[in-house]
Specification:
Oligomer: single chain
Helix content: 25-40%
Strand order of the largest sheet: 1-5-6-8-9
Shape: elongated
Largest sheet: 5 strands, antiparallel
Distance between the termini: 76 Å
Structural class: alpha+beta
Radius of gyration: 30 Å
């Protein structure tokens, strides 16, 4: 980015901008707006007088560039972006807020300002992703003990709508998920209340046990990648709680 900046600013402009060093703002700082105004004024003056560079002006340009490189208030967007890692947790490690789950509904250091900036002008591109799922019955939370009156569930579970701010992707990495203010993605999940023995399975055949197991589905959501750009990715989210049979004695085989 600095190389591009050099190409865009002529040596005439660079010599002019050096005046900013000696002309601070009222609070002692020097802003890009001041630099632009002084540049325009100085360029007009120099272009009307001569086109030959003196040794003093070349030295001034060199000093100015060193000043720009060290000027703390100047930010190059691409460089700043590459220096900032938009990752909820380093590597593939799980963030503390997950607590064994595959998502976080709230996470520290969520890039709120970055999301606002990205979606301020481009939210319309992702309208189909914003909104919320629905749970049968209209409630945001529902316990599933009995589905229909004649049916009994072997595993107790809970349905709810979540708005995750971070989640585990199909690549087993954690990413920030867009979920704030007017940009929300509400997802229906069904989670096991426990993963112990299934209900009413005490008389199952010997050599097997029945346990409740959390099942998952991959859901496409709008997210922020490591470089700070919006992307669509697949996230692993709880979908249902299922009773599964597990063979405990693999050495015994039935003989016909």
């Amino acid at each position: 980015m600095r190389n591009i900046y050099i190409l865009l600013i002529s040596f005439v402009q660079l010599s002019a901008v050096v005046e900013i060093i000696a002309t601070p703002c009222s609070d002692g700082t020097k802003t890009p707006d001041d630099m632009e105004k002084l540049t325009t004024r100085r360029v007009k003056s120099l272009s009307a007088s001569k086109n030959i560079w003196s040794l003093h002006e070349l030295q001034t340009i060199n000093e100015l560039w060193r000043y720009i490189l060290n000027y703390s208030d100047i930010r190059f967007p691409e460089e700043e972006m590459s220096q900032t890692s938009f990752v909820p947790s380093p590597g593939a490690s799980e963030p503390k807020c997950a607590k064994g789950s595959t998502f976080c509904e709230a996470i520290d250091n969520y890039p709120t300002a970055r999301v606002d900036l990205l979606l301020k002008e481009h939210a319309h591109k992702y309208e189909e992703l914003f909104g919320a799922d629905m749970i049968e019955g209209g409630s945001n939370i529902a316990n599933r003990y009995n589905g229909i009156e004649e049916e009994e569930s072997l595993c107790k579970s809970q349905e709810r709508i979540i708005h995750p701010q971070a989640g585990l992707t199909q690549d087993n990495t954690w990413m920030y998920i867009v979920n704030q203010k007017n940009y929300t993605q509400g997802v229906r999940v069904e989670e096991c209340i426990h993963t112990k023995q299934c209900e009413m399975t005490q008389n199952f055949p010997l050599g097997y046990k029945a346990e409740c197991k959390q099942k998952y589905i991959y859901r496409q959501l709008l997210a922020i990648n490591e470089s700070g750009h919006t992307v669509k990715d697949l996230f692993r989210l709880p979908s249902c709680c299922q009773c599964v049979l597990i063979r405990t004695d693999r050495n015994k085989r039935s003989i016909n």
